[in-house]
Amino acid sequence: MPSITIKNIPDNLYEKIKKRAETNRRSINNEIINLLEQPFAPQKINVRELLEQARMIRKKMDFIVSEDDIRYAKNLDREC
User: Fold this and answer.
1) Is-contact 26 34, C-beta < 8 A?
2) Which residue of 19, 23, 70, 79 has the fewest C-beta atoms within 10 A of its own C-beta?
3) In 10 A of CB 28, how many CB atoms?
4) CB 28, CB 21: distance < 8 Å
5) Phi/psi of residue 77, each to 5°?
6) What is the pTM of this model?
7) How far is CA 31 from the centre of its chain?
8) Tell me: the pLDDT tens digits for 20-66?
9) pLDDT in tens, 13-27
């Protein structure tokens, strides 16, 4: 398994990582691995919440986007 050495970690950042590792009952190394993995982990989407947000945005719009508008927009790049 590959290894990485990180140099010149600011003291305050190291202390934050150390405290977080203690809170999560992990070693500092495992905490750093966990922190590095997070941005790459698949995100679960709450579909109901997403649809509700879309409905709220639509209510604020003062125009309606028709199916023809959507079809036209989708085909714009395809015509080139």
Assistant:
1) yes
2) 79
3) 13
4) yes
5) -75, -25
6) 0.53
7) 19
8) 999 999 999 999 999 999 999 888 899 999 999 999 998 888 888 88
9) 999 999 999 999 999
